[in-house]
Write a structure and sequence with these properties.
The protein has about 190 residues and is an alpha+beta fold. About 25% of the residues lie in helices and about 35% in strands.
């Protein structure tokens, strides 16, 4: 009898093509080839970690219950934080109450019904753009740009994703999508 390996899961908002293309263009603007592959750039709402495959169907059913209105997001400034031996280049998002409410509803479902660890850090909405072992010049160039040169966009859905760590980049696969409502209560 074989058992399936745990799946590395997260819940996220996918960025539309025009946002992913704007982030890819940063490779040239910042002279930095390590900007993440456009298919991997997203807004994480909740990292879940490893989960038994048999847990996924009930997680999908629970996330279907999340009711939240659609909303618009926009990027603000570049930022960075330390991670391991390098630094992470990020694009911050403009504060958005509807985004924070969506995250709160997702957390409530996950925390109440599933054995995933609770988030310990304060949630700071951002897009991870690059993991840099030599960050100083790239981060300085990004911050010199001021605002993130990516368009705002409507958020109409979120998804449950599986992440498979590979070299040179992780592969993210949408397992299930969840539409937001035009008329859902905030």
């Amino acid at each position: 009898m074989t058992t399936e390996q745990p799946k590395r899961l997260f819940i996220a908002v996918a960025f539309p093509p025009e946002v992913r293309e704007a982030f890819l263009a940063l490779r040239d603007v910042l002279d930095e080839p390590k900007i993440l592959h456009s298919g991997n750039v997203h807004l994480t709402l909740r990292f879940l970690g490893d989960a038994a495959p048999e847990l996924i169907p009930s997680l999908v059913e629970a996330l279907k219950e999340v009711r939240a209105p659609r909303f618009d997001l926009a990027f603000s400034a570049f930022g960075s934080f330390r991670s391991g031996r390098g630094q992470i280049l990020i694009a911050h998002l403009v504060q958005n109450d509807r985004l924070m409410e969506l995250r709160k509803k997702i957390d409530a479902v996950v925390n109440d019904r599933f054995p995933f660890p609770r988030e310990k850090k304060l949630y700071t909405p951002h897009a991870t753009l690059a993991r840099l072992p030599y960050p100083a010049k790239v981060v300085a160039r990004a911050k010199d740009l001021g605002r993130v040169p990516a368009p705002g966009f409507p958020v109409t859905s979120f998804g449950l994703y599986q992440s498979v760590l590979t070299h040179p980049a992780a592969v993210h696969t949408l397992l299930s999508g969840f539409e937001l409502d035009e008329d859902a209560p905030a």
